[in-house]
Design a protein that fits this description.
The chain is an alpha+beta fold. The chain is built from one helix and four strands, in the order ββββα.
Length: 63
């Protein structure tokens, strides 16, 4: 189970999400100059959400 770093409640009225923020994942997209191949860099802001990053990396590896 993912533990949360802070107890600040995050509410998003448009999507009705209410909960404690556990972290942020940043995805940067690069393109190789010669081949045009896309490269994805997935960066979590803490180790607690690494399992989610692994799922995202696996999903992006097919592109």
């Amino acid at each position: 189970m993912i533990s949360c770093l802070n107890e600040i409640q995050h509410t998003d009225i448009q999507n009705c999400i209410i909960g404690n923020k556990c972290g942020t994942i940043t995805i940067s997209v690069y393109q190789e100059a010669e081949s045009g191949t896309h490269i994805f860099h997935v960066q979590p802001d803490n180790e607690d959400i690494l399992p989610i990053c692994y799922v995202i990396e696996d999903a992006l590896s097919v592109y």
